[in-house]
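Worked example
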Amino acid sequence: MKGLSILFISFHNFAHWIPGIPQENEFNFTSSNLSEFLDARFFEFPIDYFFSFFGHYGVQLFIFFSAYSYFKKREEILHGNHLIFLRNRFIKIGIPFLMIAVLTGVIRVLLDLWDEPDTSFAEHCSTLFAPLLWGVAKIFCLTPFMDGREYAGQGPWWFISMIMMFYLILPLLLRIKPSVKNLLIVNLVSFAMLYLSDTYLGWFNIRFTVMGHLPEIFFGFFIANLGLKQSKRFDNAKYAYLSIIPLFALLTFLNSSLLLWYLTAIPATIAFYYLFKLILKISGKRISNIFYLLGSLSLYIFLINGLIREVFIRFTPRGPGQLWHLVLLIASFTVTVFISALCFRVDKPIQARLKTILTPAAPATPARRL
């Protein structure tokens, strides 16, 4: 499902940049977004409309799966060295992130040379090094607290600061019992924080931080803590068939009002979980293997899809209609996957070498006397 999540996120990132396509209610709520999504032009651009408005909910599912997997390692994390855990997460994300930040600067300089050959050397230097500097700022969770810099570097990179914050406070979150009562409390606290953030904190948007995603995190903990019988009931494929339309109708309704919008996290997570389960159910083995491959490359795709979008989005006005946009979307995603695979090949030996260096050698066993 990670592969499907990153596909939906990448398609969303491309679709919502297409001129004239309705925007989503992701970090801010605009009441007109829903009415524009439901207008008659939906049938003219159904793929663009769907992914632009709904595709960002793939992020909620990504967070849900991260929380689920870490809760399964709860005892190991709570009794382990958290500094070593943070170091390992920092290396796993930081090396490919900074590598792709350098690539981002290089490609943007080439695009500038193509568009404006007379650009000064100083401007080229600024373009070249800016993504790297913003990448460092995001790894250290600085940009959510810098007015107007949440999307600096590449738009999708906002997620890096959020996930690093999640790793930072993970032991604290894991100590809270994932009961129904606590899940309700977390949702109420989240509702209050979102409302207060939007009402009183001005430019600061809590959704760029881990505190804006507590409902899906604790929902992941809650599902991971279910007994085997209850887990199988939640995972039952028949729910996917029966609930997709009602869940998406509910999700659409929750986007109709600001206060209702604050409650979308868990319904969106469930809706997309069952949608992806249904897609995997009807996919053949080869298609499922492709999604598995995308899942293994998800970090690299996440880091680079915004850059490749900048190249292909330039061609959207040059062809009419949905088919042309779909061709560009698929082409952009294909190039993204190809470059992600190359980055994976470069990154893995570096990660393996660092792991060897940082893992202390086991003490030698003393020789037994005869």
In short: The mean pLDDT is 87. The chain has 17 helices and no strands.
